[in-house]
Amino acid sequence: MSLLLDRVEEALAPPSGLLLYARSMSRITSRLRFIEPQLASPVDQSPEGKHWIHEVKHDGYRSQVVIERGQVRVFSQNGHDWSDRYPYIVRAATNLRCKSAIIDGEAIVQDEHGASDFESLQSAIRVQPYSVILYAFDVLPLDGKDLRQETLSERRALLKQLVGDDADSRIQFSEEFDGDGAALFKACAERALEGIVSKHALAPYRSGRSRTWLKTKCFTQSTFVVIGTDRDRKTGALRALLAHKNSGGLSYAGAAFVALAGAERLEFFAELERLATSWAAFKSSRLMDVKWCHPKITAEVKHLAGSKFLRHATVRNFARL
Description:
With about 325 residues, this protein is an alpha+beta fold. It contains six helices and 17 strands.
């Protein structure tokens, strides 16, 4: 497992290039346009078999980089032109050694450990655009050749050669892992990553939802009742204390850091203050600086899947009962 964790670390760092031969392919003569992206279907377990490759699932904005005639455009998953939001990705794309291409990838911001940090992405786009990186995982046409009917392995070999190994580039290649997807999933879960995407190496590119791309998420999102707050013993940061609703009332689920920002964060804590009570919902010697509240607020919480109590949990939204 330690070797696999090391490989996960390497996948979050710039990869090295690879030179491979590409056979002749159909040519594109008209101007390049946004192509509806291929989407992964959710599954509970990653597929097995020698023809499946696995990538770390980055938590960001799906993006499509269109390069043509010396100009670069970046589109969102729904085909909106977001070029002005990604000036450094645009600049990196202009430096790629091709005449034309469409690159499929995910725009992310990384935290200090190299993991994607979705909560920081929007603010980074506004105030620190250089920190936004595109992790490229597919190329559709390249230099006038439509690659969508070619196998994923062939497309990715060409993409890896195109992206290269410039550690300073805002476009990086999304590394793949052959073999045991379950082991990679476990390694990603241990690092609190989003999950993995498994892709059939011999499949062509197909727009829309697909069974040749499968996603297995380490994280899920659930609704809980807020019963109070405490402070994390290590950092002192405020956390929301949460419970499940069941036939017997409430059962303690764990704590979650509050990822709300600005006015929404202030409103959340103001509501908890308004609902404050001296009644203790649960007793625990592990909780520090506890403040209880009446169970009148629900929270949407992102958390690691498969655990009895919440792990790596963050409050994403809230509502009044």
